[in-house]
Target: Fucose isomerase
Amino acid sequence: MLKGIPKILSPELLKVLCEMGHSDRIVIADGNFPAESMGKDAIVIRCDGHGVPELLDAILQVIPLDTYVDKPMNLMEVMPGDPVKTPIWDTYKEIVAKHDERGAACVGNIERFQFYEEAKKAYAIIATGESAVYANVMLQKGVVIN
Model:
């Protein structure tokens, strides 16, 4: 165990977060996301017993979001015609506001199929047990300044 590190961050996930460099991206995927097929060229980390919000909060405690892009946090846009509500997005915006002074302004949306294409280029994909739909989050890591 380590002091000051959220317990939800496994040794494998901490290693990946440490390995990531500036502008590398990581996807925190909901339970429906095709993590294994999208992650053929990425590191796939299984966190099946956890939801996206608690992982997002823990990750943002240890890595900064990229300050060189306007939207370093992106959500998968709901497909037109899908009768889906996304209240979890409000939770995400509250979480990011705790860790980045830009708050919800640094959160963007990516069209569903473009999100898949971008996820294929991510450094890592975290597969969660999140049951909310359209609950996928892509983060772009910033520079750690001490």
User: Anything to note?
Assistant: The domain at 11-140 is CATH 3.40.1650.10 (RbsD-like fold).
